[in-house]
Amino acid sequence: MLRLNKVDFGYEARSIIRDVSFEIDAGQFVALVGENGAGKSTLCRLCNGLLKPSSGTVTLDGKDTRNARVSDLARTVAYLFQNPDRQICQNTVRDEIMFGLEYVVSDTEEQSRRCEQMLSLFALDGRREPFSMSRGERQQLALASILAREPKVLILDEPTTGLDYRECMFIMEIISHLHKKGATILMISHDMEVVADFADRALVLSKGRLIGDDTVRALMKNRALLSEASLLPAQIPALALELGAGFEQVFTIDDMLKRIKETQ
Ligand SMILES: Nc1ncnc2c1ncn2[C@@H]1O[C@H](COP(=O)(O)OP(=O)(O)OP(=O)(O)O)[C@@H](O)[C@H]1O
Ligand SMILES: [Mg+2]
Q1: Which residue's alpha carbon is at the smallest distance from atom 24 of ligand 1?
Q2: Measured in angstroms, how far is the CA atom of residue 41 from the centroid of ligand 1?
Q3: Which of these, 20, 22, 28, 133, is most buried using a 10 Å CB contact count?
Q4: Can you list the domains of the chain with their CATH numbers?
Q5: Atom 9 in ligand 1: which residue has the minimum CA distance?
Q6: Whole-number percent of the chain with pLDDT over 90
Q7: Strand pairing of 63-64 and 209-215?
Q8: DSSP symbols for 103-142
Q9: pLDDT per residue over 105-145, tens digit each?
Q10: Ligand 1 atom closest to Cα of 11?
């Protein structure tokens, strides 16, 4: 679905992404993690065609992003910005959701149907002004407006940053539901609990290079790799690492409870 082959990218003379290659199959849920400034947002913009590689290739759903128009790629891929205010550009919630839809759906009845569906899913009032809403509500609106397009691939740049626990779980349940229905997900996150709970595979970026590509379970047990990318494991895998022998297979709270009962 998404393939990067020896991708390099820089802003002016400064190299930001260096020799990155990976492939994401349809239906995978992949987390992209790494220290601040590692180049994660830049890499995501290369994946959705907003930026073009200076060398190497990015292929999305069989199309080389250098030759495809961003508007064509937008039928396949949707991108949630790190900051929702960089995405929101209309004066009402309803207009904001309709704005992105008009590019991908020409039938006006279908546009309205999808818009109403998103308003009801996110319990949003279509008449509200986005800038009078809380940060969490604006994040939900930004997500609602890209989901209305029903993209095959979702690229999410820190979808839960700045949200309280309930808002975070609400958004992650929606993303997880879409994944179960077949969407391919690439999600940047600094929250290793979210990564552990929802993603299957992790790409680790450090100083523009891909230094890890493995299952999330393997990442959480790899102290050297985590420390190289300035990351801490999620709490349960961290505790299992501390407990050592006998706890190698422990990853979730259920695993931990089962293992403790076995040792009693
Ligand atoms: N438009 C730009 N022009 C020049 N340099 C940029 C631009 N955007 C980002 N950079 C630089 O590229 C590097 C990587 O930035 P990027 O935003 O991709 O990192 P990130 O991993 O997403 O960081 P964070 O975790 O803070 O979101 C940083 O050093 C940043 O200063
Ligand atoms: Mg970023």
Answers
A1: 36
A2: 7
A3: 20
A4: 2-219 (3.40.50.300)
A5: 42
A6: 72
A7: unpaired
A8: HH---HHHHHHHHHHHHHHTT--TTS-GGGS-HHHHHHHH
A9: 889 999 999 999 999 999 999 999 998 998 889 999 999 99
A10: 4
